Known about the structure:
There is one protein chain. By secondary structure, the chain is α/β, with parallel strands linked by helices. It folds into five domains: 4-105, GIY-YIG endonuclease, CATH 3.40.1440; 116-188, no CATH class; 209-387, 3-Layer(aba) Sandwich (Rossmann fold), CATH 3.40.50.300; 399-444 and 502-638, 3-Layer(aba) Sandwich (Rossmann fold); 648-738, Alpha-Beta Plaits (2-Layer Sandwich). 33% of the residues lie in helices and 20% in strands. It has 21 helices and 31 strands. A hairpin with a 4-residue loop joins strand 3 and strand 4. Helix 1 crosses helix 11 (347-358) and helix 18 runs antiparallel to helix 19 (627-641). The radius of gyration is 29 Å and the shape is globular. One zinc ion (ZN) is lined by residues 450, 452-453, 455, 489, 491-492, 494.
Amino acid sequence: MSNQYAQVILDITHASLDHTFTYRIPEGMQLDVGSMVIVPFGASNRELSAYVIGLTNTCSYDESKVKSILSKDSSAFNAQGQLVELAAWMHRQYGATMIQALKTVMPVKKKVAQPKKRVISTDLTNEELLDILESCKHKKQHARVRLLEALVTDIEIPYEVACDKLHLTMASMRPMVEKGWITISEERVYRNPLKIAQTLTVPRIALNEWQEEIYSKIVTAYDQQDFTPCLIHGVTGSGKTEIYMELIAHVVDYGRQAIVLIPEIALTYQTVMRFYKRFGKQVSFINSRLSPGERYDQFLKAKEGKINIMIGPRSALFTPFANLGLIIIDEEHEGAYKSEITPRYHAKEVAIKRASQNNALVVLGSATPSIDTYYQTQIGNFKLFPLKHRAKKDSVLPSVEVVDMRNELTSGNRTMFSRSLHEKILKRLEKKEQIILFLNRRGYNHFISCRSCGEAIKCPHCDVTLTVHQDKKLHCHYCGHSEPMPKLCPSCGSPYIAGFGSGTEKVEEQLYKVFPGIKVLRMDMDTTTGKEGHEKIIRAFANKEADVLLGTQMVVKGHDFSNVTLVGALAADVSLFSSDYKAAERTFQLLTQAAGRAGRDYLPGEMVIQTYAPENYSIDTASRQDYEEFYEKEVIYRKMMGYPPVLSMVMIQLSSENHKSLEEVSQKVANKVKELMVTGLWVLGPSEPPIARIKDVFYKRIYLKHQDKEVLTEQIYKIDEYLKRIPEGRKIFVQYDYL
Length: 739
Ligand code: ADP
Ligand code: ZN
Ligand code: ZN
């Protein structure tokens, strides 16, 4: 007997409606968990869209009051049942509403009508195609040759192009269709974001002995159904990607699918091409630049079993594969794997959960693993596979020099470039080799302050100083507010106001001054706003259109430039002065990754780290690229301070436009949690975040720490309930963030 009732979640972002409602399933309607339906809601029977999250035969309510589902939502891209289960898990795990969790696991919610145009494509392999092309040339069948040549470079050709540009006719194409060479389809066309040639599967690279050892250990465990997550800790260029590809091939051979997560910034055409060259049409990718239609098509192909490998940023985790076998997370230490919006999930945790639903394996890779991941290998939760050598012969790790900027100042050098860096830059200019220079943070404050009263000019809506840009206006990086540069200090009226510090723009100016004729490409948030801005700069630099690529940390992430032999960190310690406990970890990772950008191929590379804190352990160990030593020191600090991964920690962020009630409620919440007297629970705060006001909304934070994450989750439930009970609680917005 089929199910008679459906439990649904309404597609409305409203906390008070975020629970399940039961509806009757009309006779003959086929539903699955994950289907979208239209239901009547409330006294007026407003028609709302809803997600089915459960199906039952019995109903725990008064059956006579249960309303019936009106219809299936035909415009929806229904989710897989297991993704709904995953959403339920995320809802509990991250203190998000169910609707927020459902929206997260469904990056594609609506069908996007597929264009129906006539296209010509071929199912032949590239070799077959080339053979046929040869024989047609031989027979002087020019029309056929034109079409086949076009198909060698394009995956599909619009019918009009074949007629208008290649001068073929239906009559001349029909025999080719009959021979099975080409297909003319008027069916649905998948929008293909990868506008490249036919399957050019290239022969694979044989793994070296170190790669082979890791590969066979992982595969052996996988074949024995041991799905313990694995970490490949391999220096840049050690050949991790080649191991991933072998693992994927193994999984796909057994009829299963793989998801490859890559940080968005490293998700370039080149990376995708590497996979495409190996696996051909089985590969697809998503990124934030795809249109909704392109995204929809990639997910549809996955659902219909037309592809086996999906590459993408964290949202690719939710690809609706039927038989997922492997999830790879490359550069697993990257901050981008943590969502910035509720639910603030970490891709690694969700990957492990999704893998466990499928008996799939998670493989993580990095040259600088996150402390958390490495810790898991040390306490036996993950397996560790070190890979210490670069894969290409002759490719060596760069040499690193740490320059103490305090000495520069005492020797009278007041520029941003130490004498050593200066000299090395000159050498590169002479040899026409390229240079990467970076500041650890954007805007390394470029603010305006008053020399008379000392006040910095702040955004009228946010608790941050405004930044001067090249347009000579003051900008707020948080809310986008901008205003002309004032002539007088807004606080005291003094005319003596001036800029402080230096951002990338300032460095650029100095470079032109100190090295006349130098060509600089600057890459930061201001120069990369356009859709392709970022790629354009990268391409120009790769084409050697400039001597220097200058920017924030984004310049050292994931790109390979074979002609770069010098990398300079202009102010390496800046990232240490951040209030968060991961400051040293980030500094170490950034400097080590940056060093990896120098001398990728056969040119030996050098790195210069300029710092005011050369003795700091993150800078010192990074300069020697000694991950293990850094880890040992960092873990001692985390143990001492009770920070993750030793303890779990959650940040409860309360916000309101009303400052007074925010203060009262956050104090009450903190007291409430303390009153519960949970053993081993630390309660810190309420405290002011570094930026206590953004867009006229005020913020407070409370931190909770405990050995057991579950205990933290329980507290969050209690806080949610408490806030619903007290009248002021409704005006407060709460977010949870597991740090
Ligand atoms: P990672 O992912 O660790 O940075 P890659 O897999 O990108 O390393 O490999 C770095 C370079 O070395 C690439 O150009 C790759 O083609 C090459 N490479 C990797 N493994 C081998 C191998 N076994 N033999 C020869 N070259 C290899
Ligand atoms: Zn002043
Ligand atoms: Zn602002």
